Amino acid sequence: VEEALQHDLQASTNRAEMDHVGAAALWQGRQDSVFEALIRCAGPALSSPRLRSNKLGLDTPAVRELERVAERFGARFGSVSLSEQANRLHAYLDRDESIHWILPAQARDGLDAGQRFEAARLAWAVPRGAGALVSTSPQEAAGATMSILLAARRTVTTGGPSLPSVPVKLRRSVRKRVAEVVGDRVMDTNTILEGIEALQQNADRAGLLWGGDIGTALRAVLGTQPDRNAARSSPRALALVHFWAAPDSPRWGTHG
After folding, report:
1. In angstroms, what is the C-alpha Rg of the chain?
2. How many Å apart are CA 79 and CA 66, to the nearest integer?
C-alpha cells in the first residue's frame, strides 16, 4: 500500500507499461457458470437510461482510443457519442453485441486518466452483462443481484453477510430468463457477494492494465483520494494493490 501511494505522488511518467501483457492471463479463477449466466442475462437491465447524444466521427481521438480498448479486451466496437447530460462515461451492449459508448462533452478530444480506467473496466464488464455492477460497492452490486433473483422468484438464503435491498425493474421476459438460467439452484448471500467481488476485481484489473496508473485506479475504486487507512480498509483496493505490486505482477514482465 505504501509503495502504491508513493507511486501516486510521483510524476505521471511513472505510469507502468502494460501494453505487452496478455489480458487473458490476468483474471481471477473461473466464475460459477450459473452466476455468470445470471449476470449476463439480467445485468444489462440495471444499466442507466439512455441519454440524448450525438455520434462522433471515427477520426476523433476518443473514438480511436475506445476502438483500441474494445479490441484489447475482446469486445466488438460499435459507436461513440457525446452527451451534455452525461457526467461520466457510459457503455451498453446493443442487440448486435457491440459496445456503444456515451461520453461527457469534455471528452471529445480524448480520455483523461480516470476515463481510460473506466473505459477498460466497461470494455471487460459490459459484454458480460456487468456494466452497471462495477462502479458501485460490492455490497450494493450484490444487493442488486439478490433483488434480481427475488424478482424472478428464486430462493436466496442467508449464508453470510446481509445485503441491502436494491430496487430493480425487470421485464417479464428477463424474469423468465433468469428463472430458466438459475433453475432450482438456491444461492446464498455469501455466494452472491463472492461472485460480485471476483467480477469487480477482474474489471478493476482491466482498468489498471489499460491505464497503468495505480493512483488513478485506487481513486476510482475508493471514490476518494487514496490514503493509507482508506486503502487498507478496502478489500477491493488491497486486491488491486496486490495485483499491481506482487512479484508475479504483469508490470514486472512475469505474467506468463
Report:
1. 18
2. 9
CA distance 24 to 189: 28
Q: Determine the Cα–Cα distance for residues 102 and 90; give it in Å rounded to an integer.
A: 5
Predicted TM-score (pTM) of the model is: 0.86
Q: Which helix (H) or strand (E) holds 83?
A: strand 76-83
How many helices and strands in the chain, by DSSP H and E?
10, 6
Question: Cα–Cα distance between 115 and 199 in angstroms, integer?
Answer: 20
Contact 182/149 with Cβ under 8 angstroms? yes
Give the whole-angstrom CA distance, residue 161 versus residue 192: 10
CB 182, CB 34: distance < 8 Å: yes
Contact 218, 4 (CB under 8 A): yes
Give pLDDT tens digits for 91-122: 988 888 899 999 998 888 889 999 999 999 99
SS3 47: coil
- Measured CA to CA in angstroms, residue 39 lies from 34, 46, 130, 144, 145 at distances of 9, 10, 6, 11, 8
**Sheet strand arrangement including 54-55:** 54-55, 76-83, 98-104, 90-93
